[in-house]
Amino acid sequence: MNDVMSVQLASLQKQVDAKFENVKVTDFGDGPKFQHIANTIDAMAIDSYIGTVAFAGQNSTGAYQVQFNTSTTGYSSSWPQWAFDQAKSALLSGKQLWVIANGSPFGSNLLTVLILA
User: Fold this and answer.
1) Which of 17, 31, 37, 101 has its CA 20 to 30 A from that of 25?
2) Which contacts qualify for 90-95: CB closer than 8 Å, 24 or more apart?
3) What is the pLDDT, as a whole number, of residue 104?
4) Of 58, 61, 100, which is closest to residue 81 (Cα–Cα)?
């Protein structure tokens, strides 16, 4: 990843972190889970996806490979270790992931990866 992209992702990550710091349980209201945060993220022109992990592993070069599937599309790419750890845990526990990304949920675009209850 080039330096410009790294700086852009770091800036977006700070914005996402700030939004998560100001959320309280009552923000979720009667709507779908996490809708308040999802609406906030959409307003920031950042994408969010909820889906499952089809596979998570490591190849011979040490890259962490993840297949992340939404209800309509599958995305396979190398993920950074911090995100791979979440994907692996979700796969082993059968839980969904909420992926927040700067674009499609490929490894180089990831900002936040959360395991959903």
Assistant:
1) 101
2) 90/52, 90/53, 90/115, 91/52, 91/53, 91/54, 91/55, 91/56
3) 94
4) 58
Q: What is the pLDDT of residues 56-67, one digit of tens each?
A: 999 999 999 999
CA dihedral 79, 81, 85, 87 (to 10 degrees): 0
| pTM of the predicted structure, to 2 decimals | 0.78
Please, are residues 113 and 97 in contact by the beta-carbon 8 Å criterion? Answer: yes
Q: In total, how many domains does the chain have? A: 1
> Please, where are the H alpha helices in the chain?
3-21, 35-43, 81-93
Give me 91's structure tokens: 């796969």
Can you read off the two tokens belonging to residue 8?
């852009």
CATH code for the domain in which residue 106 is found: 2.40.50
Cα–Cα distance for residue pair 19/31, rounded to 1 Å: 18
Residue 81's domain comprises 3-115
